[in-house]
Design brief:
The protein has 17 helices and four strands. The protein has 415 residues and is an all-alpha fold. The strands form two sheets. The protein has a two-stranded antiparallel ribbon. Strands 2-3 form a two-stranded antiparallel sheet.
Length: 415
């Protein structure tokens, strides 16, 4: 018996001395506050909002970090004079007191859109904008709605005239002299009415280019402002700092129910498959079987947007971008034939998600409880193939996850 025991002990020592096995054993040791394993602590730390948020610089926008550009952009963000009816501004749908959204299932401007408004907070690291990623920069995203007939319904000529009449002193130090617009019609653009399109076509190519550049610069100033909008720390971030430091007060930032939800989030629920990093989003596109709105056709999502961003004159490699072609990696290596993109939409950030009902790309779910039931049921997709796999989440576990989502809420700060 003594020899057998000695042999077993010797074998165990050899096993634990082997580098791979020693790492496994350490990872399984629940020695942190609240009994998180080392690998789980690393996952939690990767989700924590850093004390000093580093804003990613957009090479396609040379004024992306300019304070004067942000100040101009903040004024432009709230100016309704760019719209056809003089009543719609960026802030009409991205309302500061509504999490820079509008709280509606579908966006409403001059008409009703087919998707809901996305927030413009904490977006500097996002390679693609809008639910389908049809824009590849914040400045290109900012000017898209201005020409959209359902949103602002404005035109490029109108935008240039408004800038010249009301913002010349702030615009020209940033972007140079505005072109002479005195002989040009008030409205005209490639996406307006037939009459406005005809006006645009009658302009010479140089004039169209000059006006389009002014239009792009409008977006760049707005993007500089939007880049200052960041999420502040939540109770979740305080708790993770407590896990790191062992501070009892910080460990009490989450309730027992929320802590149970957090364990589900990083383990059984598989939420971190898509909701990763400090913004709790991989910024990519997934088909999760969300049903279309009642009475509407299934939305192809990302699959229909790839061609749009590739052919957009305002993309990273376009004539109005400040980037060099080699700085446009996302655009150069975009997948054009991925079948998984059919019915796929961008993963939204979970920061402040509990404050932003309804949910999904067209507001299909009124509450987070409904969202959680969808994940638990994992229904088949109406178009394409859903990535969701059925996970046996009990009613209690769903409630725990919903409780955790409330702990991701924090202030919105203008940096």
């Amino acid at each position: 018996y003594g020899l057998a025991a000695a042999s077993m002990i010797g074998a165990l020592l050899v096993w634990t001395a082997w580098p791979g096995h020693r790492a496994d054993a350490m990872a399984e040791t629940a020695d942190a506050p609240d009994h998180w394993r080392a690998d789980e602590r690393a996952q939690l730390e990767s989700m924590r909002l850093p004390a000093n948020v580093v804003v990613k610089v957009d090479p396609s926008n040379r004024v992306a970090t300019s304070a004067p550009a942000a100040q101009l952009g903040k004024r432009l963000f709230s100016d309704p004079r760019f719209s056809r009816n003089g009543a719609i501004a960026c802030a009409s749908c991205h309302t500061p007191d509504r999490q820079f959204e509008d709280g509606r299932p579908l966006a409403i401007g001059l008409g009703i859109g087919v998707r809901r408004t996305m927030p413009v907070v904490g977006m500097t690291d996002a390679p693609w904008l809008f639910w389908d990623g049809r824009k590849d920069s914040m400045w290109s995203q900012a000017i898209g709605p201005i020409e959209d007939h359902n949103e602002h319904g404005g035109t490029r000529l109108r935008a240039a005239h408004v800038l010249a009449e009301h913002y010349r002193d702030a615009y020209e130090p940033l972007f140079g002299p505005l072109p002479d617009l005195s002989a040009l019609p008030r409205d005209g653009g490639p996406l307006g009415t037939d009459a406005e399109k005809a006006v645009w076509q009658r302009l010479d190519e140089r004039t169209r280019t000059d006006v389009s550049r002014v239009f792009a610069n409008l977006g760049k100033a707005i993007a500089a402002y939007e880049a200052t909008l960041q999420y502040g720390p939540s109770r979740f971030d305080t708790y993770v700092d407590g896990v790191r430091t062992g501070d009892p007060a910080k460990l009490a930032a989450l309730t027992p129910t929320e802590k149970a939800g957090l364990r589900l989030f990083v383990n059984k629920g598989q939420c971190m498959t898509c909701h990763t990093g400090p913004m709790l989003s991989d910024r990519q596109f997934h088909n999760i079987g969300v049903p279309p709105r009642s009475g509407t056709a299934a939305d192809p999502g990302r699959a229909a947007a790839v061609a749009k961003v590739l052919h957009d004159e305002f993309n990273c490699m376009g004539p109005f971008s400040d980037a060099k072609p080699e700085q446009c990696d996302e655009l150069q290596f975009i997948s054009t034939d991925d079948p998984h993109m059919l019915g796929a939409f961008k993963t939204p950030s979970l920061r402040n998600v509990a404050l932003r009902p309804p949910y999904m790309h067209a507001g299909q779910f009124a509450s987070l409880d409904a969202v959680m039931r969808h994940y638990a049921d994992a229904p088949a997709a109406a178009i394409g193939h859903s990535e969701l796999k059925r996970i046996a989440l009990s009613d209690d576990e769903q409630r725990q996850l919903v409780a955790l989502l409330g702990a991701f809420s924090g202030p919105i700060v203008e940096r």
